[in-house]
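Protein modeling request. Please complete all fields; requests missing the sequence field cannot be processed.
Requester role: graduate student
Desired output: 3D structure, token encoding
Chains: 1
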Amino acid sequence: MSSALVNDMKCPYCGDTDSKVVDSRPDEENDSIRRRRECTKCGRRFTTHEQVESFPILVSKKDGKRERFDRNKLIRGIVKACEKRPVSAVDIEELVNDIEQTVRNTMEHEVSTAELGEMVMDKLYALDEVAYVRFASVYRQFRDVNTFYDELRKLLEKSEGNRPQA
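Delivered output (166 residues):
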């Protein structure tokens, strides 16, 4: 472990700014680093958590309003589409993580609901076609049976195109 002195990290006991890192490891969620430090003045140990600063993702809605990206809201919509389907919580978590990472990798700080919806549908299509249709029916706001039928027809054509020829 590193024993380098670090400045600007105040000891919570004596207020001194010199400490050394005695242990360092990722936290349980793997999104920050947990560091055990020892104050060079009083010798007491304390824990800090280091995390990369990230700009919040904004979601632009159809009505022009913007709100912060809420992964729990996304999870709720996907869980609803996957009810009574053989899709695990781990699958859903990975799907949402992939989408969030994709958005962050664009280096844009804003994404439209249309872009998010399409990303979800792409991922759901690969995961479970019934969940895909359920999500699409809400997302695309099918107005009648014909619109729903058109989407199912596209899905069937896509599936038949991916089947091996006999």
